[in-house]
Amino acid sequence: MRFLIVLVFVSSALVTFAQVDYFANNPEWNQASSCISDGCNDYREFVYYVNGDSTINSQSYKKFFKRGQSSLTVGPTGPECGPFTTYDNLEYLVRQDGYQVYIWNGTNDTLLYDFDVAIGDTFPVAYNLCDRYIVLDSLEQITFGGQQRRKFYFTETTTGSFSNMIEGVGWPGGFFEPTCEQPNCGYQFNCFSLNGQILIGTNCFFEASINEEEVATLLNIRPNPVKGKLKFDVPEGKALSKLLITDTNGRLMKTLTYNALTKSDQVPLNDISPGTYHLTFIFADSRQVRTSIVKL
């Protein structure tokens, strides 16, 4: 009976359902993750947010940044086994095309979500949707922030890791995080907001001790995305020791060494393939600042 009621409700609602711009009104995804690496538990609290546009091959993409904090401990409670760090990185380039959402993988578009599904359809495998047998069982229309979205329900998946998804918002583990179970990582979606108003979730930490202003203004990294040379400035009173450039798999691509007199640099990146790379700036006082760039 419940299935029939939901189906009739959605069928009548779709007549007036309007396409939503998923990335309008300053959306923010408040999330957390915990991953074990080399005996350390890396616990992170972070927020995805949209900040600006980028054009690639005449296509316009939204720039998704990720700000947060990382704490490395041995086991669930400590002691610490690494530095506490904060970050504010350009993480992804994403575009919406109707009900489809695509992510730029460094060379071409990859499907992130396809929300154009009907009851009985199987969701296509995508960037983060690694379960090949997710069949839509039922759906309902929900309203928040003056917008109408659809919430999708599944009765069975091969992994059993999640059972629902909200259009334009994601699944209970996050927006970009993989839906299939990861042996050493766990993900948690906490809250979603539009224009600073929390619309989904509780126990949010949008201001959770993240010194965003310091991270954002520390090095004046530019341009991002970058084609040729990456420029940055060393803040007054800081002494930079090293810059490490790694790919998304953790492989070291470049190591640059500096001295106390270094005030700025232009790093040539012509020898690096297009994609997303992580930068780790290590200062003389052992402070580390991490951020990301997109190489075109």
Cα end-to-end separation: 53 Å
User: Which bin fits the share of residues in helices?
Assistant: under 10%
Please give the radius of gyration in angstroms.
21 Å
- Following the backbone from N to C, one meets helices and strands in this order, namely HEEEEEEEEEEEHEEEEEE
- Average pLDDT number: 81
Tally of separate helices: 2
How are strands sequenced across the largest beta sheet?
A: 6-5-4-3-2-1-10-11
The tally of structural domains comes to: 2
Q: Any low-confidence stretches, pLDDT <50, length ≥5?
A: 1-16, 207-213
Main beta sheet, described?
Answer: 8 strands, antiparallel
Q: Specify the structural class.
A: mainly beta
Shape: globular
- Strand percentage lies at over 45%
The overall strand count is 17
Question: What does this protein look like?
Answer:
Helices cover 6% and strands 47% of the residues. The chain is mainly beta and 296 residues long. The chain has two domains: 2-201, no CATH class; 218-295, Sandwich (Immunoglobulin-like), CATH 2.60.40.3080. It has an eight-stranded antiparallel sheet with strand order 6-5-4-3-2-1-10-11. A four-stranded antiparallel sheet has the order 14-13-16-17, with no helix packed on it. The protein has a three-stranded antiparallel sheet with strand order 7-8-9. Strand 2 and strand 3 form a beta hairpin. The longest helix has 12 residues, at 2-13. Residues 1-16 and 207-213 have low confidence and may be disordered.
